[in-house]
Structure formats: structure tokens, C-alpha cells
Amino acid sequence: MKIAMLTNAYPYYPGEQFIEDEIAFWADDPFASVTLLPAVAAGEPRSIPDGVSIDLCLASGTRIDRFWFMLLAMFSSMFRHELIYLWRSRKMGIYTTLRAMLHTSKVLEQAERLEQYAKASGKIDVAYCYWNEAQSYAALLAKARGSVRKVVSRAHGFDLYETRRKHEYMPLKRQFIHAYDRIFTLSDEGKAYLEDTYGAPPEKMKISPLGVPLANALSRPSPAGSLHVASVSFCVPVKRLDRIVEALSLFARQHGQIKTTWTHIGGGPLFDEIRKLAETRLAGISNLSFEFLGELPNQAVKTYYLDTPVDLFMNTSESEGMGVSIMEAMSAGVPALAPDVGGVSSLVSNECGALLSPCPSSQEIADAIGRVALEDGRNALRMNARKVIEARFSSNRNYTDFISNVLAIGSAPE
């Protein structure tokens, strides 16, 4: 079966590192012939398994092409319908209008390139869109024109929650939400949000969590009197990394007898700002040290938990689909602390860490650090963290089931 997997950049950098776990299962399936179609391709790609190919048709546009499709967008019915929605929802403005036009042009351009790809390589059986964004709308347009048989899409967080977007605006989604053959959400909460916010038909949705490999060993706890806290995230406002800084300041001052270390992994636009904040706010606290390791390859992050004692994983995001970085830590037996946002509550609980309120104060986070890391039962929390991944978030089971579902959709009559 011919599968076109539409990504933002994978296998090119940056981001989408979690596809690295899933793609191996696609490569091993004897019934799937997978081609990766990234929208952006810069630099050298990451290695991919044998049996998976890459086509750069979606990433080959020129400035002249973009200008041409902007002109087409201005006179398209898609753009007109979006302007009507913006007017009725009272979201009309210069920014939202420009975003609508830009997205419309992207959809028109990528749909044409998908049609060209299908003419050259054969009709696409399933367009699997890793994000529920412009590429997936282009695939639906190509389907309507006869170049694609079926279109399925995942929906994570940034491509799902309008609150994560400027002016709380997600262009074009309502125009296309009924046309998918299947939308796979990560949790019940994500499914409900798609239904309530965009009117997605429930019969076309299915819950399919991401997964991570089970670590071959468990992370070691720190020696008595020491505490090592880790966080892994892109440094952007939605991750609220300043909350970690303030919470650790409170915790370290309240527990002067505990030698506390914080390690953050991940780059991003706020990397320098957060590091400077830590240098300012945590200066002079003799029992607290920190390090910012920047961006690391996905496998290096997994190895880090096995090579370095880690006692607690911290996430303070205001919006989260599920949190694969949390899963990776828990797979190695590291208890997790995270707010009750998105689908996090199906992963984190007080039995394997600490589930915080959706908008926790620095003091609430500091108190939770103490409960998880210092009170009796912390060894049980480590074992329970691993058991949660074994039971519900193993990549072996989740990706095998997901691929079976996608292939079944592709095999069904049109």
C-alpha cells in the first residue's frame, strides 16, 4: 500500500524527533510502502530505516511559486469562506486576514505538488498527515481532485488548541474538519476538544496515543541528601519554564540540607532568556546548581536517564497534547510532575509523580517536588512510573495498533 507521510520537516531538523520511534514500525510492516514528504528540508536529514524513502516535492517551491499561489489564494472560495468565518466570529483583523491568506496559499500550492507527485509515482493510497494543519488540508484537496484515496491525520497540541495560537485563531480547520477519513487524537480530552470546538464528527475520530520504547534499565536515584531534577522542552512561552526557576528557588531555600541540581535539555527562542533568568534568580543559593544542555538528539536524551541519576522530571506547560518527553522519562522509572492540561492526566497521576493544577503557582510546584522526591514511597513512584508506560504507552503496542488502523482504512473501499 502506497503511504505518503506528510511531515513538517522530518527527517530534516529541527523537531519531530518523536517520529524516529514510529518510523521504524512503518519500515517493518510488509504491507506499507512509505514515502516521507516534508514541507521544509534544510541541511542534512537524519538517518531513516531501509524501506522508507524521501520525496522533496512539497519543499521545492520558489519565491515566484509562492507569489503565484498568494494571488490564487486571494480569489479562491476557500479564502472567501475563511473571511466569512472571521467576520462572524469577530476575529477579523489584519493579522488574522493575512494568516488566512497565507494558509490558503500553502494549501493550494501543496495540493498541486501532491497531485504532481501522484502523477509521477502513482495514486496515493493513504496520505498520513502527522499534523492536523495546512498539509493535511492540502491532502484533502488532492483527494477531492482524485490524486489521493484516503486521508488520515494525527492531532497533537499545537495543531489542536486554538488557545496556543495568536488571537486564538487556527486558519481553515473548520472548513476541512468533516472531510478526513480518520483523525487520531492522543486522548479523550483531545477528541472532545475537536468535537466541541471545531465540530469534528465523532465517528471519524479515534484515540491513538503516541508511545516510547521501554528503556532497557531504570534510572538510578541520587545519593541520600541529593536531588536531581530534569526538564526537557523547547524554550517557548507555552512551556512556562520560568515557573520551574521560581519553584526550584523556593524548594532549595526551604530545604537547605538537600543538594539540588536542575538540568534542562532543549533549545528554542527563549533559551538565553531562561538561562539568564536562572542565573539571576538562583544566584546565591548555595545548595542549588543548574545546567542548560541545549538541544540533544532524541536517543541521547533517552541515554541520559540511564547514565545519570534523575529523581524527578518536571513539566510546567500551560498546554500539552500528551507529553512524549514525560513518557520517555517515566519509561526509565523517573517520576513526573506536570499540570493537568491536555491529555496529561491520562499519563501523570499522584501514583507515579504529581498531577498539578492546570495553572500551578510556584509554591504548589515546590511543594510537589518535596512530596515526590523526599517523602516515603518515592521508590514506589519510580516503579509505578515505569508500569504506566508498560501498560498504556509502549511504542511496540501503540504504533503497531496505529499502523494496523491506517492500513485498514486504506484497504476499505472508497
UniProtKB/TrEMBL annotation:
InterPro entries: Glyco_trans_1, Glyco_trans_4-like_N
EC class (word): transferase
Keyword Glycosyltransferase attributed: yes
Keyword Aminoacyl-tRNA synthetase in record: no
Gene3D superfamilies the UniProt entry points to: Glycogen Phosphorylase B
Domain Glycosyltransferase subfamily 4-like N-terminal: residue ranges: 106-214
Protein's name in the database: Glycosyltransferase
Taxonomic placement: Bacteria, Pseudomonadati, Pseudomonadota, Gammaproteobacteria, Lysobacterales
